[in-house]
């Protein structure tokens, strides 16, 4: 089938019983006339499909086409699904049917019995060890660390936010996604078990902290094999060989120009952005220190700010060129033409930190964006930042932008 649907993950809903999530993507980025059906022992099941944007690190390149979308299939299983044998995901187009995935109910049972988690890494030195990862807390999950003999290790446990994981668990609240770093000071065991247990589920993951040279080689081979197997499943043999070749010659399979083309809004979309009224519309101050900047660079930078589709901004410039600055007339002209442009002048040359602080002194925005005097902002740069702030009310950051011509 030309437009295959590739299943990348299968898990249960965190809170609703008998609801399954199947994640995947199309070779042509979108269904394009293909129809997905899900069966349990050949009986069709109801499901809801959601389209999601992939993150930059998740983008895929299939036959020169950039894949930027993934699809979440929320499947309602019958209450007696455990008595069945097999679940299938079928991709159909013009009478041709392709089984994208087939999974036994025995395997689904095992998936449902485990705490959903991932251990990012474990490391050790002469002072102790450190392990980091994440897990989904249903309200009753306890975590502990033991060696192979069952000895418990009292670790210093620090939690952190994992917005990357939350994107994959949209039914969860931010506080349910527990990112962590566990640190122990003392003698280091060869292996440590990360034990996760709730009222109904249990997971154990073993981390080898002191591997032998042979174990290191075997682990590297194992990871390479697993990555190759996954890639082969998603892209097929020809694309897998191409990927291996690019790895060998250290070339990137994702073209920046191809990615940029898909991310650049059309003129019609830019016009729509200009009319968008956000519920939350913070003022963004762009702070730029100047020092005898070539006039063409400075003009391009200022004009790129003026072309922003999001209008609640101010541009605070500090001219640290000193007396007889070559920028004086140009800056005064922009100040007169655009009330959102503010300039502070100095009679003496300023170093970069002094220059930046001088611009910060006149800033009145809710968020600060730092830029250089030769930077160039895409017209939707501030719009995308404010859109993200409206989608995630927990964001509380200073935004730095540095977008240059490539």
Written account of the structure:
The chain has 406 residues and is an alpha+beta fold. The protein folds into four domains: 5-112, Immunoglobulin-like, CATH 2.60.40.10; 117-208, Immunoglobulins (Immunoglobulin-like); 214-263; 270-400, Spore Coat Polysaccharide Biosynthesis Protein SpsA, Chain A. Helices cover 26% and strands 34% of the residues. The protein contains ten helices and 22 strands. It has helices spanning 105-112, 163-166, 213-235, 237-248, 256-263, 267-275, 295-306, 328-337, 352-360, 381-391, and strands at 5-12, 19-26, 35-40, 43-44, 47-53, 60-62, 65-67, 69-76, 86-93, 96-104, 117-125, 128-136, 142-146, 156-160, 177-185, 191-197, 202-208, 284-290, 313-319, 341-345, 367-370, 399-400. A five-stranded parallel β-sheet has the order 20-19-18-21-22, sandwiched between helices. It has a four-stranded antiparallel β-sheet with strand order 1-2-8-5. It has a four-stranded antiparallel β-sheet with strand order 4-3-9-10. Strand 3 (35-40) and strand 4 (43-44) form a beta hairpin. Helix 3 crosses helix 4. The longest helix is centred in the middle third of the chain and has 23 residues, at 213-235. The chain is globular and about 80 Å long. The relative contact order is 0.09. The model is unreliable at 400-406 (pLDDT under 50).
